[in-house]
Specification:
By secondary structure, the protein is an alpha+beta fold. The chain folds into two domains: 2-165, Ribosomal Protein S5, domain 2 (2-Layer Sandwich), CATH 3.30.230; 168-311, Alpha-Beta Plaits. The chain has helices at residues 64-81, 103-118, 125-135, 187-197, 201-220, 224-243, 254-268, 292-300, and strands at residues 2-7, 10-14, 19-21, 26-27, 31-35, 41-47, 55-58, 61-62, 87-93, 147-152, 158-164, 172-177, 273-277, 283-287, 307-311, 318-319. The relative contact order is 0.19. Bound molecules: ligand 2P0.
Length: 322
């Protein structure tokens, strides 16, 4: 009745922002991501008949805010197992939590894998993706390594699948940390506000399928320039929606903009690199392996960048060996 799993965060190259059904956490748009190896979540799940309710500890502290989402995921698995037993969930990240580094994605992917093993269910990845998605819309992508695709299906469902293996296009990612505090507005609240108030939201959703198709083709063809173009376009469109939400969602810090400009300058001088930015102030620079030292040194020298984290493409969520 106890198991531990690890998972890596992922970052979307074609972004997810907005829901078509908040209750079932169904995304309004698909997304294409890479799973990173340089950061990790470790989650232990123990079902204990002595517990009256699920207990959630995140980074050593009791976390009531996350507990409801954890319980929603565990309820799906308890239904499958025909059990009502509550669980003790202990999760820790080796990177800043709730700061735009996709800790909820790695956290809920690890939770689904560990809880499935604890209950002895042996669910398929498709079923685990459903469980992880209830916790966080981006979490199914962290079940897979390399490049992962999440898309809406014509029947109203959501499908998440591997799109290209890490070994087939081993890009590198340099994460520039510009602030480590938790974000002021959660992605969940921000998405609801964008849908309700941004004049750009409808166009974001309408034009998204074309971006997703362009991203999928660029990855399959390993076309770096094409991927750079669609990834930066998708990122800036998403942030345009955020900026025009009421009240405005401005996740960027001054150093965020400075990093973005440095990356553009590097590319103009011939370095194969592009940026993406999530619901937080950190900048992720995606580059060819030969460019990683240049990109790292350039971003580390930007005033306001406290550190850089170098990542390769990682593997999917899995049971911990020990
Ligand atoms: C993404 N983000 O595609 C986008 C880009 C942030 C910006 O998915 O409400 O924590 O739990 O489904 O998955 C972050 O949102 O949101 C996210 P919920 P989630 O990576």
């Amino acid at each position: 009745m106890r198991a531990t799993a690890t998972a890596h965060p992922n970052i979307a190259l074609v972004k997810y922002w907005g829901k078509r059904d908040g209750g079932r956490n169904l995304p309004a748009v698909g997304s294409l991501s890479i799973t990173l190896d340089g950061m990790r979540t470790r989650t232990a799940v123990e079902f204990d008949p002595a517990l009256q309710s699920d207990e959630v500890t995140l980074n050593g502290r009791s976390d009531g805010g996350t507990a409801a989402r954890v319980t929603a995921c565990l309820d799906l698995l308890r239904d499958r197992a025909g059990r009502a037993t509550r669980a003790r969930v202990t999760s820790a990240n080796d990177f800043p939590t709730g700061a735009g580094l996709a800790s909820s994605a790695s956290g809920f992917a690890a939770l689904a894998v560990a809880a499935d093993r604890s209950l002895g269910l042996g669910l398929s990845l498709a079923d685990l993706a459903e469980v992880a998605r209830i916790g966080s819309g981006s979490a199914p992508r962290s079940l897979f390594g390399g490049f992962a695709l999440l898309r809406n299906e014509p029947d109203g469902g959501v499908r998440c699948e591997p799109w290209l293996a890490a070994a087939d296009w081993p890009l590198r990612v340099v994460v520039a940390i510009t602030a480590t505090g938790p974000k002021a507005t959660s992605s969940r609240d921000g998405m609801a506000a964008s849908r309700d108030s941004s004049p750009l939201y409808r166009e974001w959703v309408r034009s998204h399928d074309a971006d997703l198709a362009a991203g999928m083709a660029a990855v399959r063809q390993r076309d770096f320039a094409a991927l750079a173009a669609v990834a930066e376009r998708s990122c800036l469109k998403m942030h345009a929606v955020m900026f025009t939400t009421e009240p405005a969602l401005i996740y960027w810090e001054p150093a965020t903009v400075d990093c973005l400009q440095e990356i553009r300058k590097l590319r103009q001088r011939g370095t194969p690199v592009f940026f993406t930015i999530d619901a937080g102030p950190q900048v992720k620079a995606i580059c060819e392996p030969a460019a990683v030292a240049t990109v790292s040194a350039t971003l580390a020298a930007v005033p306001g960048v406290s550190r850089v984290i170098e990542c390769g493409l990682g593997s999917g969520a899995r049971i911990a060996d020990d």
